Amino acid sequence: MKSRAVTLWNGFLDLLFPPKCPFCGAVRTRPGICGDCADALPWVPDGEAFRTVRGLSCTAPLFYGGAVRDTLLKFKFHGYVAAAEPLGALLATCAAERLSGLFDTVTYVPISRERRRQRGYNQAQLLADAACRRWDVRPQALLVKVMDNPPQSGISDAAGRWANVAGVYRLAPGQSVSGRRVLLIDDICTSGATFCECARVLHESGAAAIYGLSVARAREKSGQ
Ligand SMILES: [Zn+2]
């Protein structure tokens, strides 16, 4: 539940920093995506809503590319954390439409302690936080990244992406996922290797079901 003080404070911040469309930067009277972007963005059609990668069902509201790519790169690498709120709202809507009743726990893809220190935040965690605020729940920090591998974004071939993430995640100390149905959140799904490696750890730890949800996913190419 939001306290009145927090609501007032957020309202005050909005006066100083009015909400903007995360894709074009247009100032909005209410947070969210502007009408022009809503019309122009590459939405994933319902008929292609799910992509199954090595048995894991993944979904995303948008395809990766153009303005979506620009916004997600700014969000991930250039401190554009204001995008977390509208993008998290997008994830919440997508999950409500496609995954309603299928999960009871929300988590996110972790980054290494070193990367977290450099960047100052984990973009996937910010998205999960923003989505969960709409459901009045908190995301669980179920996974940790135990190796500081090179970023997936710097590896162009699918085989290299799969090899790069093998064994880099563990269940967080003290966590249990036995029988849980887990929604796993990330910003982008390209090869699906990151989602699958996290899902493998959750599955081996006893999770009953796992679904991947990202803001955007790559259009499928052969070999991915
Ligand atoms: Zn816009």
What does it look like?
Strands 1, 2, 3, 4, 7 and 8 form a six-stranded mixed sheet that branches. The protein has a two-stranded antiparallel ribbon with strand order 5-6. It has 224 residues and is of the alpha/beta class. The longest helix is centred in the middle third of the chain and has 15 residues, at 84-98. It has helices at residues 4-16, 35-40, 66-77, 84-98, 113-119, 123-133, 158-165, 193-204; strands at 50-53, 56-59, 62-63, 105-108, 143-145, 169-171, 181-189, 209-217. The mean pLDDT is 91. It is globular, with a radius of gyration of 17 Å. It folds into two domains: 1-40, no CATH class; 43-217, Rossmann fold, CATH 3.40.50.2020. The chain starts with a helix and ends in a 7-residue tail after the last strand. Bound molecules: zinc ion. The site of zinc ion has 8 residues, from helix 2.
The mean pLDDT is: 91
Q: Biggest sheet, open or closed, and with what strands and sense?
A: 6 strands, mixed
Structural class: alpha/beta
CATH topology of the largest domain: Rossmann fold
The number of distinct β-strands equals 8
Helix content: 25-40%
Can you identify the CATH class of the largest domain?
A: Alpha Beta
Q: DSSP strand (E) fraction?
A: 15-25%
Number of domains: 2
Total number of helical segments?
Answer: 8
The unreliable regions are none
Ends: how far apart?
42 Å
Using the CA coordinates, give the radius of gyration.
17 Å
Shape: globular
Order of helices and strands: HHEEEHHEHHEHEEHE
Quick take:
The chain has 224 residues and is an alpha/beta fold.
